[in-house]
Amino acid sequence: xxxxxxxLILSLMMLLAGCLGPSTSSWGTGSGSMSVDASMSTVTTxxxxxxxxxxxxxxxxxxxxxxxxxxxxSAEVSFEGYLAASHFYSSHSSLGGASGLxxxxxASVAIESxxxxxxxxxxDGEGPRIDVKSWDMPLNPDTGTGTADLDEIDQxxxxxxxxxxxIPTTENIHEGLVALDEWHQSIxxxxxxxxxxxxxxxxxxxxxxxxxxxTDCSLSIGSTNKETLFVFVTSVVLEGGTxxxxxxxxxxxxxxxxxxxxRTGYILFALVVGIGGSIGAFILSKMFVMxxxxxxxxxxxxxxxxxxxKQVKKDIKEAKSAGLVSPTERKKEASKADSRSKPPQKSQKxxxxxxxxxxxxxxxxxxxxxxxxxxxxxxxxxxxxxxxxDMEDEIRQQEVQSSAPVQSSFxxxxxxRSTVTSSQPSAPVREHFTSSAxxxxxxxxxxxxxxxxxxxxxxxxxxEAEDDVAPVPSQPARQTFEEPEEEFSDFSF
Length: 493
Known about the structure:
alpha+beta, 16 strands, 26% helix
């Protein structure tokens, strides 16, 4: 994945090569723009803190064969040499030291004075190198250690330099100045010096006292070995082309142009070599991988295994051509048919936590047992169910039956009688308290009852402790009597 990304980035860089340039100003009258009228008498600029206009300017030309400089001369003044450094301006700041016509400069260059052909003889790395620290003021760069320090150029220096503030005269020149971003090449700049009636002998302006030209109209450098001037640029000649005012030169330099190939040729070359080469490399690498896999398979399976695989592939192709369907395909088709034939499932409603139990239905369908037996119907919160009432009725009936008088004439078969003699009066009989007390019988013995467990009692029933039951008055017992044993019934329910 990283290799693919690297190839894409490299391709984009190749496509953008020659199309990127330094940040420069715009041509016109808007913010961050500048322009010069056709007569080169007015410079309008918005590169400073505010819009400015410099009027009453005069271009200074040269007289051919004599080198005389004057305002009304049509020949251009030339500056030849070796381009050692350049700087472009998208804006100017007064805090950096720019003032006056500095705000109308689009670019500055440092050129070592020599002939165009001599500058072309320098090999890469052999020409002068300048360490630029800052270039806020177009005519006064701050440089450091290098083969040439522009701050230290004086009468004792062995080299002569042009420090030029370039003012383009047309839009094509303005756009073409980005070619100066490539240092260390031969250059010839042609144009006019700038004269102002209000400037006097200010730095950068033409002065008839200090400035002279040779017979070929190239500006001569004085004893200080450094000339700092504003220049109205009309053309620029480089090793790779020419930048003209109208852009109609035979070897016109165009931003993004590539030598020999041109822009169109370079784009086609990048498409063919870059994209086509990457696709070809991918296909070739895939072929190598497949070849390695085949070799490994031959080693593992042997010749017989490879022949079998080839035969299987051949049989599969013949079966497909004959219209046969493999089991896998039949399963897929069957599953698709089943999925189509199934009706859409209805959305299931969410069931309560206790499935099958609805408390509201149970409460609404239960029979009413009266106001006293309803849930919370009385002062108490106890529920009296039907089962508890039935159990209470059975207990009451059994108590009544157990307390009924026993007939002496009734003797069940195989009844065992016992004779009890006692010299002490019989103990009082304790009975469970019921709502209707059974009649007391003097001759009846104490009745033994089976304890019955009650699940629940009605809210209105009051159970008294056995100790609180009033004892039955005792009668003088007979000394000897016969009493049939009581037959106990099974009260289990």
